[in-house]
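Example record

The entry below shows one chain as it appears in the dataset: sequence first, then structure tokens.
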Amino acid sequence: MKTKQIIATAAISALMFIGTISANAQSENRAKMDASKPMLCDQKIPGLTEEQKTKINDLRTAHMKEVTPVKNVLAEKNARLNTLTSADKADMTEVNKTIDEIAKLKGDLMKMRVSHQTKVKALLTDEQKVYFNAHMGGKKGMGKGMHGRNGMGQGKGMHQGNGMGQGMHRNGMNKGECQNADSSK
């Protein structure tokens, strides 16, 4: 009887181990695939002229220069919040202050994203705007990182949901969303 239990336990452990390896391999393959084929706005919008592509690229560069420092501060605040909430006795005044700072930074990033999208749309024809609104604007809603926390807003990674602003899509990309056009966490 003990032999059967040992064999059953070993079989279950082996299946769990194989499942974990398989999931990690798939995750790594997706990450490699995503990194090898970046999707930029101008690669998806149909009928862009070279002038439009150049202007959109210039807007994207300026946008990234604007949001990168804010995203860096946001990452620092999130790390600080993690430190504060990991303490045996969390200082709720500091926790609440940090949460408020994070909320303001996320709001600032959202405003920057919408401003950027508006500037891009100003360069497009009516046909291109229809496509942009349907595919690039990234209609956002409730999201939940599969192995993370609940969230509202644009997607992050299936295995990296980190709270408000995080959802189901890898690398911050929603259905048809431009790489580097949003990137707000």
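Notes for this example: The beta strands are 141-144, 150-153. Confidence is low (pLDDT under 50) at residues 32-39, 139-177, 179-185.
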